[in-house]
Amino acid sequence: MSRFFATGSDSESEESSSADEITPKATGTTFNKQDLLLSDDEEDTKRVVRSAKDKRFEELTNLIKTIRNAMKIRDMAKCLEEFEQLCRAFLKSKTIMDKEGVPQFYIRLLADLEDYLNQLWEDKEGKKKMNKNNAKALSTLRQKIRKYNKDFETEIASYKENPEQSAEEEEKDDAGSASSSGSDDDDDEGITAKSLLKKKPQEEEKKAPEASKFLKGAADEESESEDDEESEDWGSDSVDSGSESEDNEGAAASLAVVFLKKAQDSDKLTDDKKDSRRKKHKKKERLEEEADEEAEAEEGGWEKVKGGAPMVKEKPKMFAKGTEINSAVVVKKLTEILQARGKKGTDRAAQIELLHALAGISNENNLGEGILIKIKFNIIASLYDYNPNLAAFMKPDMWKKCLECIDELMDILFANSNIFIGENIAEDSENLAISDQPFRVRGCILTLVERMDEEFTKIMQNTDPHSQEYVDNLKDEGRVCGIIDRLLQYLETKGSTEEVCRVYLRRIMHTYYKFDYKAHRRSLGLQGETKSEQDQEESEGEDSAVIMDRLCKFIYAKDRTDRIRTCAILCHIYHHALHSRWFQARDLMLMSHLQDNIQHADPPVQILYNRTMVQLGICAFRQGMIKDAHNALLDIQSSGRAKELLGQGLLMRNMQERNAEQEKIEKRRQVPFHMHINLELLECVYLVSAMLLEIPYMAAHEFDARRRMISKQFHHQLRVGERQPLLGPPESMREHVVAASKAMKMGDWRTCHSFIINEKMNSKVWDLFPETQCVREMLVRKIQEESLRTYLFTYSSVYDSISMETLSEMFELDLPTVHSIISKMIINEELMASLDQPTQTVVMHRTEPTSLQNMALQLAEKLGGLVENNERVFDLKQGVYGGYFNRDQKGGYQQKQSYQRAPDQRGGYQQKQGYHRDQKGGYQQKQNYQRGGYRNQNQSSY
Amino acid sequence: MASRKEAPSGKSLDSPVRQIQIEGLVRPHHQALQGSEVVQGVLLGLVVEDRLEITNCFPFPQHTEDDADFDEVQYQMEMMRSLRHVNIDHLHVGWYQSTFYGSFVSRALLDSQFSYQHAIEESVVLIYDPIKTAQGSLCLKAYRLTPKLMEICREKDFSADGLKKASVGYENMFEEVPIVIKNSHLINVLLWELEDKSTAADKHELLNLSSSTHLEKSLQMLMDRVDEMSQDIVKYNNYCRSLSKQQQQKHQYIQRRQQENAQRQSRGEPPLPEEDLSKMFKPPQPPPRMDTLLIASQLSTYCQTIKEFTSQNLGKLFMAEALQGTSSYS
């Protein structure tokens, strides 16, 4: 968070602690205090109450101790690190230093460190021995300390003059560090007591460097290096304290007095100081509220610093009283504010406020829309900037503000047609002032809206989808869509084609996954129940299908970036598929040739592609194209990572496969919950279509050795089902499908039907489809047909002939259907039978090989393989050096040769070879293999 | 005890046992052991000249998995001692094993037969197929390891080269010893009597065409073995390829080295130090060939049984054809 809050809370704790401290400090001597603290320590459980000063000093001394240790072991890197920390700690305790003066031990360390470093620097040999890290640290540290020590020159000089005193202290210091922290305090006390003697001169001196620091801070504002930044920080900080004291001069009127007093009564001073600080703190708060007056008082003196100082919050003054507010001034102010953007320590919230105030001022003064728009642009930009982290999402209030801002901006843009905006308008060619010419403003509203859309996605990603909050957030979708629509209208008149394409894509992205219930109802011929509803429907504009069609076609024609077109096509297909326009969807998919090169696309597009494929598959299923459905879903389902592939959640994986960074990236790719495709539905559709394909296939090829699985996933489920020790009634969707498959295997379509379509499955899966009834009817019919096929495959060997009428009764199919199914099977040579027309019976031919014959055939095949393998070994033995490997290269050559030979020679020659090849070389044998095909031809033609 | 009939001596075998004579008494033990589970037991008997007479046997107890600490050796000794007390031949002359459709050639059989034959030179393994016997054709075979195989097993050299040197093929791994069954006169009398009593229908059993299930089972197992064989061959093939590849590399390396050395010599520099080539080119691990041999041997046994089976059936079919004339089978 901002520094302001940090210091605020800090001072609070200081206050509370100092309040506790007041009594002992006021009455007791240092000795007394030590006692008190020690006793505190003994109790141990009690919280040790220490003054802020003690705390700070302890921090400093600890750091100093580590530095000294590091010095002893010549660990420069450590030294540097600690020194940087020390500087920071010193800065923190700046306020205390102001009162107490720079503590002696601090000066001592600075002096010692510099000496030590110089000494090391001189020692060339030692330097050589040092490792790279250390040497680097040494040079940096040396430079740093030189710069730093300039601020303390006098103190260091005085320390060098009078080292005994400090030596004494050092002893004390050592003793202190050896014992508990309580004694540390006392040590500090001692030091301050001594240093107090010198306080006054020091204090006065301090003012001078401070002033110089301001200048430096102001001068350094352009440069970016770390050192400078630090000094900048330093500068700003001192500005702070400086201005505070300046403020105080009027009200508390004490500083000068306090300084004088200090030498005599330090304790009292601290009290006073605390009081004044408290007042100051309150004042600060007041400052925020009524910034203007206070700031104006300051204005004159500190103008110089203001620009560079990131602490705009401290003085959100706008313009000096009486300044004539015109557009030039406002623009200047705007750039001033914007310069602080992105800098460390900038309070982003305050900046936004400031910009709002500026917008208000320009509005009051009627500076025209040009400026207003420019400020609005910047407000939105800084709203987006508010989160430094890319992964974090906007807070609700910020989000609301952002939406409002964009809305207002759009209002202005629509109200004033003479405003030109664009990202390619240079800053200096802007025309913001009111004049005859149209306004020209730099900025791209499209980018802002796109960013807004992304933020919206991010918010949705980061909200728990099962909470009310999600619903609330989702309500904003309407506004987002509204804004995109308005932008679309705006850009259609003003924007370039690329911009139009981009905004169209946004619109498409918000449309493609939504099912158009109105259009659906209309297509079913169901008009709205009442007249008024119907009117409403008509007034609400065109079907989403028409919109999609229009937008996508524009993109196909005009877009020049491949990505937008790809996305548009995919969305278009998705939309078609969602509305059961299977043939359009399929044709579009085939025409786009996206399957060939989608693997080169970026992950979000791939996710979209996967979603589209899945939707396409589900659409095919609804239309009864079981095979197409299966093919479309196969890729997604067979991987077992459907969830991940659809961007609907991360799979549990160990950290080896994915580190935290990757996980974050993957999380950012997730599709918001309201766009999810139901995974159970997906799996069910897949399994059911696999069942309808696989069961008849399995029945037909029961004895075939080379039988392949159509769907591994489905077989896996079957195996899982078989492994169950106890088979209860099915519970889950998968169990239902497995049970149905088993029933179907026996040709029992009624049981199969009851497993696939029942209450449970309806509520789980089938009710999710828009036209549930049609799907269910289709499914029943498919089950009947496939069961019939399975039955015929499985039991044909039992029948000599079977009447088609019986079959049609068994499967409740009408006679022509049965006839057509059986005819198809006969034509495809799946069923060895013939139809006897007069009696309407199927007569089996019984030409299926018996299992023994099947087995013999398999054995023959296997033996063939064995012989082939054996010959390979034989080749190897015969060939000289890896004859086997050279075979391919030489093969070509020899093939050519063989063409020249007379075919009869060749045939005879090779026939002779047969299996007796002992004396022949490897080459001839190889030929045999490669020419197998030719040989056969030759022989047969002979 | 039993009258001995001189059996015609089979093919001359260069082993101490040329013939095995089994007492009829031994058989009942076996017949009790029906079932698909493999049953093993000890054969007792004595050696007479070049003839091994098996006069008794006892099975190893079927021990289940939960008494794993059962001491078989102890049991055997115990059993033999008891038999000795009742004055039965107690010379350990081998062991027997039941089989299932003729699948018995395995590594375990090889190992145990080797250890038997190593300890007792004359010992045999008797393979008994209860299923086939139940169908009417006695299936009892006695096997011994050939001396060549013994040699190899002793040296434990199962590499391809070792087998090649010993010229052991699957066909000469085991030698079958002819069996003569001797029954006591009492049993012979009983058999005669039974033959007289049995009806014609019982005798026609012989003419039954065996069902195809037996053939199917055999084919199935044959197929499994062929698969294994294929895999082994592929493995061996891979080995050969990698070996030859390495040989090539080695050869190249040596040549290069020689060239370099020649150059160095011409320049008057000392030749490069010799390096350990075997370390640089570690030959790949050769796959053991014994398993392949065993599989091959098993394959040939299967083929043998199938051949026997089918030829019998074919014979019956032809007979039937001849009897029925040209009407049914043509």
TrEMBL record, chain A:
Cellular component terms per the entry's GO annotation? eukaryotic 43S preinitiation complex; eukaryotic 48S preinitiation complex; eukaryotic translation initiation factor 3 complex
* Domain named PCI: residues: 673-849
This entry's Gene Ontology molecular function terms read: RNA binding; translation initiation factor activity; translation initiation factor binding
Q: Which UniProt keywords apply?
A: Cytoplasm, Initiation factor, Phosphoprotein, Protein biosynthesis
Compositional bias (Acidic residues): 220-235, 288-300
Localized where?
Answer: Cytoplasm
Q: Which GO terms describe its biological process?
A: formation of cytoplasmic translation initiation complex
- Low complexity biased stretches: 921-935
Give the start-end ranges of region Disordered: 1-36, 158-251, 264-304, 892-942
**Ranges of Basic and acidic residues composition bias in the record:** 200-210, 264-275
Quote the InterPro entries the UniProt record gives: EIF3C, EIF3C_N_dom, EIF3CL_C, PCI_dom, WH-like_DNA-bd_sf, WH_DNA-bd_sf
Its primary localisation, in coarse terms, equals cytoplasm
- What is said about its interaction partners and assembly? Component of the eukaryotic translation initiation factor 3 (eIF-3) complex, which is composed of 13 subunits: EIF3A, EIF3B, EIF3C, EIF3D, EIF3E, EIF3F, EIF3G, EIF3H, EIF3I, EIF3J, EIF3K, EIF3L and EIF3M.
Q: What does this protein do?
A: Component of the eukaryotic translation initiation factor 3 (eIF-3) complex, which is involved in protein synthesis of a specialized repertoire of mRNAs and, together with other initiation factors, stimulates binding of mRNA and methionyl-tRNAi to the 40S ribosome. The eIF-3 complex specifically targets and initiates translation of a subset of mRNAs involved in cell proliferation.
Family named by the database record: Belongs to the eIF-3 subunit C family.
Q: What is this protein called?
A: Eukaryotic translation initiation factor 3 subunit C
Automatic annotation (TrEMBL), chain B:
Q: Which residues form the MPN domain?
A: 12-149
Gene Ontology MF: a single term:
metallopeptidase activity
Tell me the Gene Ontology biological-process terms attached to this UniProt entry: formation of cytoplasmic translation initiation complex
Q: Cite the entry's keywords alphabetically.
A: Cytoplasm, Initiation factor, Protein biosynthesis
Q: Cite the CDD domains for this sequence.
A: MPN_eIF3h
InterPro entries assigned: eIF3h, eIF3h_C, JAMM/MPN+_dom, JAMM_MPN+_peptidase_M67A, MPN
Functional note = Component of the eukaryotic translation initiation factor 3 (eIF-3) complex, which is involved in protein synthesis of a specialized repertoire of mRNAs and, together with other initiation factors, stimulates binding of mRNA and methionyl-tRNAi to the 40S ribosome. The eIF-3 complex specifically targets and initiates translation of a subset of mRNAs involved in cell proliferation.
Can you tell me which family this protein belongs to? Belongs to the eIF-3 subunit H family.
From the Swiss-Prot or TrEMBL record, give the protein name: Eukaryotic translation initiation factor 3 subunit H
* The species this protein was found in: Cyprinus carpio
